[in-house]
Hints:
Shape: globular
Number of strands: 0
Order of helices and strands: HHHHHHHHHHH
CATH class: Mainly Alpha
Largest sheet: none
Strand content: under 5%
Number of domains: 1
Distance between the termini: 42 Å
CATH architecture: Up-down Bundle
Structural class: mainly alpha
Helix content: over 70%
CATH topology: Heme Oxygenase, Chain A
Amino acid sequence: MSLFGRLKSENQADWDAYIKHDFVAQLADGSLAKASFKHYLGQDYLFLIHFARAFALAAYKAESLVDIRQAAGGLVAIVDLEMDLHVKFCADWGLSEADMEALPEAPETMAYTRYVLEKGLSGDLLDLHVALAPCIIGYAEIGAALQDNITGNPYGAWIEMYVSEDYQAVVNAEIEQLDSLLVSRGGEGRFDALAKNFNQATRLEIAFWQMGLDVK
């Protein structure tokens, strides 16, 4: 089993609470309130900026050209693929890039993004990637689970972004990178600490979904 598979299995209850959250369920059936979705979109824009910073930090933390290239690929994927798609998508919902840049960060956005950056600063490259994994890989799992709910769904285009071949390729590379880093950065002795970090990041993802639902 991959390191990601083991981390998920170790934290299955929280993982299920994340990928099957009411926010996700309402995306699937198209019943999510528009105000909730627009708030989520604006905060996700700010979220992605910090995740781009995290991949830049990953390049700094890397000690081999292979790892630098992997970090650079993740940074490019966020800046040139996911951010571009996000901005275009948000425009259809009446949110300009300037509007989103001017938004104050919600506490949930600050909590998760700063958690990821802190793990990268205080730990090593493996700590950083484990903190990133719930977002990167979780969205792919959600997209795959919802792919039959695209047609006629006001949120279908959002689902399509995360079930796309380009995004799935990024996720597969991330799963492989986690396995490689476990071998080169300490092996089995680190698993319990990594599982704890993965759990914390997953619970922060749950809070991020709840933030959207709590908007009135």
